[in-house]
Design a protein that fits this description.
468 residues; alpha+beta; Outer membrane efflux proteins (OEP); 11 helices; elongated
């Protein structure tokens, strides 16, 4: 039993001496100072709009969207790769069985004794274990672990983008709804104007030109209805696709409406400062950090190939000429061995692998810096867009009010005989354009808020993600 104890001691010593994956050093970053806290409710920011239909639509998409389900499937793949890497840290144990019948040659110069035919049966267990002397296997496991974490963060990035896309598409739909309703209401007014001008023309009060102008204005408004109806239908189909609905549902989409765009809650005021936990909230940044950890582990894994590998093997079983004797004590066989392999000729190959891993690590470091840059730029741009959208809406509200007053005065002047009907038509066109631009400003205000929530990393929770 002395060889067994010797090999066991060697294995324990090797395990204790195993090299750990080096600690990852992230690139130095020159970051702006944090001046605010992230707003409350970021994990499910869509509920802040107080629209039950929007909330239901986003949660349907998060449950069924095909892009998100594909990303989740990649987690399963990464988890399987991690299990594969972990399995190399443990011994393998196999059952072996064979049956062999052979005849000795009568024509060889080294034959001994008379020729004969023999039968051999064997059954046993075979174990093998590669001692991780230099941390190669452990580094591979750590790399796979970090890759799994990166894949999980990828899923959260897809979740954030999906929720934001559903929300902005929904707001576009509500804007198209509002513009279509406005256009149809305006068309009804234009119909009344045409009838009025026709009566005035028949009474000799209005000219043929004024009647033609009224008809032309009515036709211009009517021409705007079909494109808006098409936009509504296409946006409904887009939402059905985002929600992961069936092909039948996409072909004939039914999207429930909630709050009118006019009555939408703009949400709580988001502080203009920079949140202190921005980098922790952005899954794309944390994904880049995990990729950097994986790259460091791959370098350690590649470098460990320079050093010898130690493999322990053992077998235990039975071997006999008769099956009935296979499990008897006299048929018992066993072996135990240790093998050491030191690469010599392959040093250049290993060096190339180390260089490649180092280059990938540099790419990962640059990717991390790019992710951080993108995070801060996204927040900067979203804050600017939010302020701009609110200011634009205020200006459009004021413009609409002024043009509504101008139309009232134009109608008074026309009825009093102080101006032509053309002045009324100009005022009506101006007010209609202002109403449309105000609807667009309302949509842009909501979309800007969605972009800000997205830039702040809203729409997911980091709780437990590293342990799932």
């Amino acid at each position: 039993m002395r060889p067994v104890r010797t090999l066991a001691a060697l294995a324990v010593a090797a395990l204790l001496a195993a090299c750990a994956t080096p600690e990852t050093n992230k690139p130095a970053l020159d970051l702006p100072a944090a001046t605010a806290q992230a707003p409350a409710g970021l994990d499910r920011w869509w509920t802040l709009f107080n629209d039950a239909q929007l909330t239901a639509l986003i949660e349907e998409a998060l449950a069924n969207n095909l892009d998100l389900r594909t990303a989740v499937a990649r987690i399963d793949e990464a988890r399987a790769n991690l299990q594969l890497a972990r399995s190399t840290l443990f011994p393998s144990l196999d059952v072996t069985a064979s049956s062999n019948r052979a005849k000795r040659s009568e024509a060889t110069a080294l034959r001994q004794g008379p020729p004969f035919t023999s039968t051999t049966h064997d059954l046993g267990l075979a174990a093998a274990y590669e001692v991780d002397l230099w941390g190669k296997l452990r580094s591979g496991r750590n790399a796979a672990d970090a890759s799994l974490l990166a894949t999980r963060y990828d899923v959260q990035t897809v979740r954030i983008a999906l929720a934001a896309q559903v929300a902005t598409t929904y707001f576009s739909l509500r804007a198209f709804d509002a513009e279509l309703a406005l256009t149809k209401a305006t068309l009804a007014t234009r119909d009344e104007n045409v009838k009025l001008q026709q009566r005035r023309r028949e009474a000799g009060v209005a000219s043929e030109y004024e009647f033609a102008q009224a008809e032309a204005e009515r036709a211009a408004v009517a021409a705007a209805v079909p494109p808006l109806e098409r936009a509504v239908a296409q946006t409904e189909a887009a939402l059905a696709v985002l929600a992961g609905r069936s092909a039948r549902a996409v072909y004939a989409p039914q999207v429930a409406r909630g709050v009118d765009l006019e009555k939408f809650d703009p949400g709580p005021e988001v502080p203009a400062g920079l949140p202190s936990d921005l980098l922790a909230r952005r899954p794309d940044v944390r994904r880049a950090e995990a990729a950097l950890v994986a790259a460091d582990a791959r370098i350690a894994e590649a470098r460990a190939q320079y050093f010898p590998s130690l493999t322990l093997t053992a077998s235990l079983g039975g071997e006999s000429a008769e099956l009935s004797d296979l499990l008897t004590s006299s048929a018992r066989v066993w072996s135990i061995a240790a093998g050491l392999v030191q690469p010599i000729i392959g040093a250049k190959r290993i060096g190339a692998q180390v260089d490649a891993a180092t280059a990938r690590r540099e790419q990962a470091a640059l990717g991390y810096q790019q992710a951080v840059q993108a995070a801060f730029r996204d927040v900067h741009d979203a804050l600017v867009a939010q302020r701009s959208a609110r200011a634009a809406l205020t200006a459009q509200e004021e413009r609409r009010a002024k043009l509504a007053e101008a139309l009232r005065l134009a109608e008074l002047r026309y009825r009093g005989g102080y101006s032509s009907y053309l002045e009324v038509l100009d005022a009506q066109r101006g007010l209609l354009a202002a109403e449309r631009e105000r609807i667009a400003a309302l949509r842009d205000r909501q979309a800007a808020l969605v972009d800000l929530y997205k830039a702040l990393g809203g729409g997911w929770s980091a709780d437990g993600i590293a342990s799932r």
